[in-house]
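Quick one, probably user error.
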């Protein structure tokens, strides 16, 4: 849409603009001439007059002005004395004609503009415009100063690039702020003699660079995350935003790139991903463990059955077989009886065979009890749980006995038992807590203790915790500790608790060191 003229709102804004001006000169004629002229120019100036440096000083002590207009030479000083009185107000210097050199000197010393006084006082006509320009310039300078300080003090690296690639491969860097130097190690001069290529290296993603290249070719903003390299060769991750800058005619003249160091974030992300993977692996481990446990459970039932069946059948069958044999040796029995006894003998022999088969099964299970190092079992379980403990903020401390703790055990069952104790400790402990696992020999006992700084067990619950289905946790089976107790007793050990509500718990497994003599499955 074509742009219309100024809106009434804009007009009224301009009309109501009143500038406070201090005029320092002693020519009262030009003072009189000022008021009507400025009104014609649609700029309203509220003038104050001072005839000397000392009078100006007095006024400036208590009042603020948008602009100060002063003669170069004043009765009691010069424009330089006026500069000393002002810190932040633009000064316009008025000189006599033929005195432009003086005016240039004043400009160098900080004047905003100068006007040459002519005998016909024509200079007064341009005064309103000069005043307005000086104020506008001051305002945009203030704005620039703020922007400049924001850019140079920013924590993110800010880079300005030329719009199109020149002789260098890539767009030349025209400006970098202090954060860029802090982030990359390259000085302003090193950076401005180069392109962004100096930050790239082997781990910089080619896909990200391609995305940048396409965006730059199409003059479109782009945002990517990529690895950059410092001057010393070290890597860091940045989030890089590149935006084209266009002038008011829509022509692109520069690129601005803002780069934020996201190394810490990336590290945390990678660590989280790593931990997630480990937790997934741990879950897989747990599932495997549970499957193992099921198999063990089935096997165990079969073995116990075998034991019972063997015990109950072996003797009666042997007895029947023996009696039949004796009876068959008796010459007085009829052929019918002989046949019948022969059948019974056959049956007894079959039973004996079944008993032997069961015993073989039992023996196979017995092979699962082997000499293993308890420390290795604990180590394996801890390696599964400690990552999860780290995520939760629970410290895990493990102290192994000096030397190995070889004992006869069913290692899968033992693993399950150790796992449940540490898992319970982990569940009872909140962030900042600690779990301590220790293995050691105490006389003729092998000890494994698991302590935690968790919520502990109330006195009235201690006697119930080994009961199947006793649980104070939501949606849990309460099968952990009964299983642990069962496993420990299968290893002829004891399971002890030392716990107090609010004061953590210690679970201790005690095993005899002399196994071969006592193993129930060795008989
Ligand atoms: N280290 C411990 N600190 C505090 N309380 C514990 C600890 N270990 C066990 N308990 C208490 O004993 C109860 C029974 O534990 P158990 O391991 O048998 O079952 P669970 O952990 O509740 O459920 P499951 O193990 O079947 O998932 C728990 O619910 C808890 O109240
Ligand atoms: Mg449990």
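Nope, works fine. Designed sequence:
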């Amino acid at each position: 849409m074509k742009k219309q003229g100024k809106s009434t709102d804009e007009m009224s804004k301009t009309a109501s603009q009143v500038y406070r001006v201090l005029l320092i000169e002693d020519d009262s004629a030009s003072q009189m001439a000022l008021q009507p002229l400025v009104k014609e120019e649609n700029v309203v100036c509220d003038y104050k007059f001072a005839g000397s440096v000392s009078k100006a000083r007095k006024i400036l002590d208590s009042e603020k002005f948008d602009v100060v207009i002063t003669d170069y030479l004043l009765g009691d000083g010069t424009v330089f004395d006026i500069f000393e009185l002002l810190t932040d107000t633009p000064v316009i210097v008025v000189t006599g004609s033929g005195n432009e050199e003086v005016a240039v000197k004043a400009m160098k010393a900080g004047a905003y503009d100068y006007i040459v006084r002519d005998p016909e006082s024509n200079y007064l006509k341009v005064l309103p415009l000069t005043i307005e320009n000086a104020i506008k310039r001051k305002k945009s300078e203030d704005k620039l100063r703020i922007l400049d300080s924001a850019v140079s003090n920013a924590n993110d690296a800010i880079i300005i690039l030329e719009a199109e690639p020149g002789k260098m491969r890539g767009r030349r860097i025209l400006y970098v702020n202090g954060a860029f130097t802090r982030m990359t190690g390259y000085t302003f001069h090193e950076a401005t003699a180069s392109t962004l290529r100096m930050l790239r290296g082997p781990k910089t993603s080619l896909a990200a660079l391609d995305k940048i290249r396409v965006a730059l070719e199409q003059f479109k903003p782009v945002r990517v995350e990529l690895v950059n390299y410092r001057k010393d060769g070290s890597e860091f991750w940045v989030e890089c935003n590149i935006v084209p800058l266009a002038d008011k005619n829509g022509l692109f003249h520069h690129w601005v790139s803002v780069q934020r160091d996201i190394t810490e974030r990336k590290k945390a992300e990678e660590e989280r991903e790593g931990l997630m993977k480990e937790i997934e692996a741990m879950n897989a481990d747990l599932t495997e463990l549970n499957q193992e446990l099921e198999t063990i459970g089935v096997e165990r039932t079969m073995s116990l059955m075998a034991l019972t069946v063997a015990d109950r059948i072996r003797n009666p069958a042997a007895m029947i077989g023996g009696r039949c044999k004796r009876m068959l040796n008796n010459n007085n029995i009829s052929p019918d009886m002989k046949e019948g006894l022969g059948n019974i003998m056959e049956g007894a022999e079959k039973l004996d065979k079944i008993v032997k088969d069961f015993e073989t099964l039992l023996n196979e299970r017995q092979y699962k009890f082997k000499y293993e190092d308890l420390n290795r079992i604990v180590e394996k379980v801890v390696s599964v749980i400690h990552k999860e403990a780290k995520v939760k903020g629970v410290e895990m401390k493990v102290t192994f006995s000096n030397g190995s703790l070889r004992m006869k055990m069913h290692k899968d069952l033992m693993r399950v038992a150790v796992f449940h104790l540490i898992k319970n400790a982990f569940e009872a402990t909140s962030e900042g807590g600690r779990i301590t696992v220790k293995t050691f020999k105490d006389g003729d006992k092998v000890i494994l203790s698991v302590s935690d700084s968790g919520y502990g067990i109330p006195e009235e619950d201690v006697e119930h915790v080994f009961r199947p289905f006793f649980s104070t946790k939501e949606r849990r089976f309460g099968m952990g500790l009964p299983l642990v107790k069962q496993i420990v007793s299968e290893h002829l050990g004891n399971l002890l608790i030392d716990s107090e509500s609010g004061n953590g718990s210690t679970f201790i497994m005690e095993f005899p060191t002399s196994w071969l003599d006592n193993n129930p499955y060795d008989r």
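Residues 420, 423-424, 480 surround magnesium ion (ligand 2) (CB under 6 Å).
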